[in-house]
Every structure is written in structure tokens, then in C-alpha cells.
Amino acid sequence: MRRVRSAGDVASLPKHAFGAAAVTWWAMWGLMLIEGITMVLVSASYIYIRQNFHEWPPAHTPLPSLGWPIVNLANMWLSVVPAVWAFRAARRHDTAAIRTALWIQSAMGVLAMVLRYVELQSLNVRWDTNAYGSVAWAVLVTHGVVMVTDVMDSIGLALLFTIEEPEEKHFVDTCENSQFWYFIVASWTLLFVLAYLYPRWTS
Amino acid sequence: MSVTVLPVPEQDLPPAVDPEDHRRLWRTWEPYKGFYGWITSVNHKTVGKRYIATCLVWFLFGGLEAGVMRAQLARPESHLVGPDKYNQLFSMHGSTMMFLFAVPIMIAMGLYLVPLMVGARNIAYPRLNALGYWIFLFGGSMFYIAFLMNTGADAGWFAYVPLSGPEYSAGKRVDFWAQLITFTEIAALIAAVEIIGTVLKTRAPGMSLNRLPLFVWAQLVTAFMVIFAMPSVATGSLFLAMDRLVATHFYNPSNGGDALLWQHLFWFFGHPEVYIIFIPALGFVSQIVTTFSRRPIVGYPVMVLALITTGFIGFGLWVHHMFATTVPQMGAGFFTAASTFIAVPTGVQIFCWIATIWLGRPVWRTPLLFVGGFLAVFVIGGVTGVMLASVPFDLQAHDTYFVVAHLHYVLLGGGLFPLFGAFYYWFPKFSGRLMSERLGKWNFWLLFIGVNVTFFPMHQLGLDGMTRRVYTYLESSGWGALNLTASIGALIIVISMAVFVVNLWISWRHGPLAGANPWNADTLEWLTSSPPPPYNFADTPVVISRSGLWAYGDEVPVVTGLPTHIPFELVTTVMDAEPVLQHEHPGPTIAPFVMAVEVSLMLVAGVFTPWAYPIGFALLAIPWFMWAWPRSGTKEHAENVDAEYSLGAPA
Fold first, then answer.
1. Which residue from A4, A48, A134 is facing B539, i.e. has the nearest CB?
2. With contacts defined as CB-CB under 8 Å, which chain B residues touch A37?
3. C-alpha distance from residue B159 to each of A108, B251, B339, B650 (Å)
4. Between residues 486 and 515 of chain B, which touch chain A (CB distance below 8 Å)?
């Protein structure tokens, strides 16, 4: 077996980093990629099934209502504010600000989940009525499942910053949680157009 | 304070600047003892070996199913099994070989080898790694328990609708199949993220991307392919499950659904899947050819570009599985061109390997023999693939034994032969012992003969009109002799596999000790001991050349200074692998196991009721918090080790 010699010492390197230097940041992007591709595929299925109908929504199926979905869209856009606040506070290690921002972000996330249930009703079609209903529900549920995971993460972090003394890595986690939320809001904005506005343009 | 001598097993250890580090590192990285240790381990080598062993068990089951089918088809009008059982046998065989053996074992080899080959102490996300394995194990077990209860999949491995839909497949057979897809896709996606994180962020200093071993490149390309391909089949199978469970209409044409949507979603995954199996195998071949030709690979940049190109083109072929549907002519033309074009990067690699062997000093040990077998068998499969890429020929041969012959030549030639070469090549690293060369050669030649005797006659059977998936045939068809030949070939394959198992058993217990680098290979896994200690490397090696160990001479440069009291590893930059960070590793925990049990219960219950999903998701919060909530154990452990060694608190 060969001998070894020290060619450098890494003891002085930092033990935590924000952004692309962190290993967890890459996992977050991996998850966003997987979930983003899934949303693209569900959207492609929506467009594919659209080809089977002369009208969209199909005959005798009402258009989706816009009221509550717009309310939720506004809620999700506004929820970016506490997410950005938490992100910036985490960067400067401001525990009190993080705690407040995360609780607000969690509350708005829970509200978004409740409103997602209302949005499903606003489609004005059941999943088993026809293929349009099935795929429209699929769009909302697919995004909803991803949203639930991040809301759970936000609540977990909010609890952690409230109960425990946070470790350095939890500040990094907070930033990544915010970035994931941006993805949730951005992807929903596109899916909102598909599920609620597109039928209006093509009907 | 006296220094306690910690139990370090009697084995060779990798070189270290401070040999005392071995004691500290062993204590820090070793798993818990006993059953609890068994279910809480997050070490990539433990998980990787389990993954490989589990895949081999499923491979055995899939092989037994094939054996029964060949026994049934050995003579005309046989009644060994009836049509219903035969439907289950070919569906279980195909699903097992694709979802429970070929794809996962290629990934599992990466989970074991990639961290070692890039000089890391563990995989990037070790708890996720454990979660992926448990989900894979539980999913496969569910599938086979269902089979034993006469609820085995029976609509083929690609489960075309409307056959697999609620109207034509009553009962729960297809539902268990669809759920198997969910299990295995979760596991594969998890593994892909781990491989990407490990390769891009935890490489040894100096291992810039243009010094990455070709097997690691292959695993990286495969991981990206998994991320782009697997969501497609997961989406498709979820739609299928919902059509069956809650009466959605994704695939129901009478309510606006579309049966071809299933084929698109399935084959957008299904064709890249072939490359997900094949590209890691190309990586095996490159490593074996380099080592046994005793020279660096010819055309490294071209080889890397060929891997990446194959990954891209692999996504442009899926419609060639659908030529018998109503694909527009222009579309069919495009997919014919793409299907032909993909032979180019593969051809480039084959020429590079041949040139490497030609210019080197080849040593024909068993791994290289399997590479030779790969070249011969795979090229035949490739040639029939180019034939099938042509629409007029495909329409004639569609759903016949010609396709069965083609796909087995491609998958056995392109997957199984390199995999067996890889087993013989890396077995010393897994076990510390060499496998028997004599039995290895028997293993190889029996497999080579068996594969050709089994599958070559199937080309003719297909051209004679024998369609796939028929459970028997009339004597007057004239297919008896060729079928009997194929069945004799299958028996030879069985004997070959028995030789492999005997070799494995004997070598694991009594094989000659291998030492760190029995083949004088150039990649980093051969720098550490065989088998490696739980922490892989005491000090992270510095890579100074693409030729890895061959460039070192007598001394290996390493970086020191990583904490030894708590599990830490070095994080480097994506392109040039410059050290930027010390990353603390999560320790062993039962959370991944608990989460896998919870997810599995949710998915199995989801076969019967849709309520399983909202309830299951809500309950997921429990293992989620077990996983993520900070524990004081790691710090206490570090303090204990500090006290033992009087080293003071870590920085």
C-alpha cells in the first residue's frame, strides 16, 4: 500500500454555506426538477386530452369559476413576502425575524391548502365526470401534494426556531425552504393559467 | 486520562497521515450494533450491498419465471401451466427484470461505487439513500406477496390500456402492478438525486469534471435520465390507478380519455429506461477495458460526449415502440431517423474500446471476457434494433418473437454481460477476496452459449409468425424444434447462473485475499482497503491526473484537517473540485425505515381505497419530524470521543 503525505489542510474551511456551495441546495434543486417535470407531464396530458374534444370544457360542462382561485393566487403571491423576509433574515442570522416570518409563511401556506380544496370545487366538474374533469383535478392535486410538503417543512422550521436553539444549518434550511416556496408559487401561477384561464380562451 | 483502544477489525486499512485517525474515524462512522444497527444504517456501502443482494433475489425469481415459461414452450400443446398463470408469469418476469432487477441493480452498483470512486466518505444524502432502499424492498415484497396470492400482474410489463383498464382487468392484479411502479420510481428518483449530489459536490480535490472516471460519468448521465424519465411512468401509472380506483377517465375513450396517452407516458419513460440500464453498463465496460488493457482509455473526451449524446437522443426514440399505432408519417420518419442515429455514439464507444484493447496489453481475466461477450451479443441486438427502427419492417415484426429476441440481445448483451464483468471486477472491493477465475470462465462461456442458443432461434420464430405472449402453439405450426432449442439454451443459462452462485459462495468464504488493488487499477476505490472501512478514506486523496492512481508514484497527496469526532466530509466545487466546505453528515437513524414503512402502508392501502392517500400524507408528518428534528446524540458522541482521546472540543 502506498504512503500518504499531506498536501493541504482543510480545517479552516467553513462548516456551513448558503446557496450552491451547500450539498442540500442540490437536493432541493433535484426535487424541484422532479416535481417540475411531473407538472409539465400532467400539463402535457391536459393538452393531449384537449385534442379529443371539440369544445373545452366539453359540452354540458360549465367553465371553472374564478373567484376563489383568484383569491388563492393573490394569497400565494403575497406569501412570497414572508418567504423573502425569512430568507433575508436567515442570511443575517436574525432568529426573531425568522421565527415571525416562518409562522406567517406557514399560516399563509395552510390557508393556501384550504383554498386549494375550495379551488377543486371551483372547477365545477367532478374527477369522474369526463376526461376533462379527470385531468383538471390532476393538475390541481399534483401541485397540491408538492405544496403540502413545503408547508410541512415551513411549520417544522417555525416550530424549531420557536422551541429549540437553532443550529447553523437551520439558517441554511430556512433559505432553501424559501426558495422552494418561490418554486411552488411560480409553478402554480403557470398551472392557474392552464386550469382556469385556458378553458376560457378555447371554449 | 488513559486512551481506550477501540475495536478496529483486523484488516488492512487505507493509508493515513496520522494512523491514530483510524480509531477515531471507525468509532465515529461505524453503525450501531445488532438488529437496531441493521435497520438504522445509512452507510452507502451497507445500503449498496443490500440493494445489490435484493436485486439478485428478484433476478432469481424473474429467472425462475422465465424457466417455467421455457419449459411450457419446449413442446407444442403443453399443459404445464394454463393461460391465466402464463399471463402472470410473463408479466411478472418482465416487470421483475425491468423494475426490480435491471434498473435498480445498475443504480445500486453506483450507490456503492460512486462515493468510493470520487474519494468521498459517504453518499451525499445518506438517510435518503436508506429510505430509497427500504421502499424498494417493501415494493418488491408487496409485488411478490400479491403474486403468491394469485394476484400477480397479468397485463404484460407495459400494461397497455384498455387491457389493463377497469373494464378488461377486474380484480386487483393491475393495481398491485401500478403500485409497484410507484414504489420503484420513488426509489430510483431518490437514488438519482443522491448520485448527482455526490458527483457534483463531494469529489476529491483535483478531480475536475474532465478527470472523472467514465463509470462516474455514466452514472451522472443516468441519474439525469432517471430524473427526466421516471416522472413520466409515475404519472402514467397513477392515472391508471385512478382510472381503476376512483373512475377517472384518463384512458377511457368513451369519456374523452385516450389509450395512446398511456403509451406516450409509458414509452417516454420506457425507452430511456433501456439507456438507464445500458449507460451504467458502458461505464463498467470502460473501467474494465482500461484496467485490463493496462493503458488509459482511447478518446476520453469522445467517450464522455458519446455518453451525454446517448442520454439526449435516448429521449427522442419513444415513438418507435408505437409504430403500429396511428402515428403520423412525418413523426414516424423522425423517430426512425433518431432510432438509427443513436447507433452512432454507441459505435464510437465500441471503436474506442477496441482501440484501447488493441493499443494496450490486454490481460484476459474473467471481467474482460464478459466485455468480449458484451461486444458480440450487444452488436447483434443493435443490428436488429436498426432493422426494427424501419417502420415497414417493424410493422411486420411487431409483437412477434423477433422483438423478444432483439430486446433480450440488447438487454442481456448490453446489461447483463457488463454487469457480470463488473461483479467479477469489483467483488474484491466488496468482499476483500478474489473470485475463482476457473469458475468465472465456466460462468462466462455457459452464459455466452446459453444466451445465443436461447435467443437466436427466436429471430426465426418471429419471422415465422410466432407472436409473443402465447402460452402454447399447435404442432402443425412447425415451431416445435426452434422452441425446444431455445428451451435447451435456457437450461444452459440456468447452469451458468448456478456456477456463478457457487463461485460467489465459495469465494466470499474462501477466496484468496485481494488486497487493496488486486488488478492494479487506476480509480480511487482501489486506493482504500478491500473491503473499505466505514469512512472509506482516512484522508481525502488529491487527484493529480485523469489516470488516477497510475499517476501517483509511491506517495499519495491527501488533504487533512477534517474533523474525526463527528462524521464530516469535504465539499468541493462543481467544475474544478476545489475544496470549499466541511459538511457534517447525518448519522444513523431509524427515521428512514419508519418513513418507508409508513409510505408502504399508504401505497398498499391505496390499492383498495383512495382515503389511504390523505390519511397517509397526514401521518407522514411523524417520520418527517423524527427525521428532521435536531438530536443531541451527535454532539454527545463527539464529546465522548473527545474525552476519550483528550483532544479538546472540535472547532
1. A4
2. 227-228, 231-232
3. 42, 12, 23, 57
4. 515
* pLDDT at position B333: 87
The angle at the Cα of B183, spanning B177 to B185, to the nearest 5 degrees, equals 100
Whether A90 has a pLDDT exceeding 80, the answer reads yes
* Residue among A20, A135, A148 minimizing CB distance to B250: A135
CB atoms within 10 A of CB B392: 9
Q: How far apart (Å, rounded) are the C-alpha atoms in residues A137 and A135?
A: 5
Residues 570-599 of B with CB under 8 A from A: 570-571, 573-574, 579-584
The C-alpha cell of B610 is what?
A: 383512495
Number of CB atoms found within 10 A of residue B485's CB = 18
Straight-line distance from the first to the last Cα atom of chain A, in angstroms, rounded to the nearest whole number: 74
Contact B200, A22 (CB under 8 A): no
Closest CA of chain B from A16, distance in Å: 7
Beta bridge partners of A3: B555
Q: Say if strands B555-560 and A3-9 run parallel, antiparallel, or are unpaired.
A: parallel
Size of interface A-B (CB pairs under 8 A): 199
pTM of the predicted protein model: 0.94
Of A34, A48, A134, the CB nearest to B231: A34
Q: Is B299 exposed, middle or buried (0-12, 13-18, 19+ CB in 10 A)?
A: middle
d(CA B332, CA B329): 5
Q: Which of B306, B388, B309 is nearest to B351 (CA)?
A: B306
Task: For residue A20, list chain B residues with Cβ-Cβ distance below 8 A.
Answer: 574
- DSSP, res B595: H
Please tell me the distance from the alpha carbon of residue B586 to that of residue B609, in angstroms, as a whole number.
36
| φ, ψ dihedrals at A59, nearest 5° | -50, 140
Kindly report the backbone phi and psi dihedral angles of residue B557, in degrees, each rounded to the nearest multiple of 5, phi listed first.
Answer: -75, 135
Closest CA to B606 of B595, B597, B614, B618: B614
DSSP line for B347-403? HHHHHHHHHHHHHS-----HHHHHHHHHHHHHHHHHHHHHHHTSHHHHHHHTTBHHH
| CA distance, residue B336 to nearest chain A CA (Å) | 23
Contacts of A15 in chain B (CB under 8 A): 568, 581-584
Amino acid at B366: T
Q: DSSP letters of B143-185?
A: HHHHHHTT----STTTT-TTTTSTTT--SSHHHHHHHHHHHHH
Ranges in chain B, pLDDT < 50:
1-8, 10, 645-651
- Cα gap A57→A179, rounded to integer Å: 35
Which among B556, B568, B625 has CB closest to A2?
Answer: B556
Give the list of residues 6+ apart from residue B492 with CB closer than 8 angstroms, or none: B446, B449, B450, B453, B454
In this predicted model, what pLDDT tens digit does every residue of B210-238 receive, in sequence order?
999 999 999 999 999 999 999 999 999 99
Residue among B349, B335, B345, B334 nearest B300 (CA) = B349
Q: What is the pLDDT of residue B643?
A: 54
* pLDDT value, residue B633: 53
Fill in the amino acid letter for B82: G
Distance (Å, rounded) from C-alpha A10 to C-alpha B559?
7
> Inter-chain contact A9–B235, Cβ cutoff 8 Å?
no
Contact B114, B579 (CB under 8 A): no
Residues 6+ apart with CB under 8 A from B415: B102, B106, B277, B278, B281
Q: Which residues contact B167 (CB under 8 A, 6 or more apart)?
A: none
Contact between residue B310 and residue B316 where contact means Cβ atoms under 8 Å apart: no
Of B265, B559, B617, the CB nearest to A7: B559
**Contact call for residues B398 and B463 (beta carbons, < 8 A):** no
B 439-468 near A (Cβ less than 8 A): none
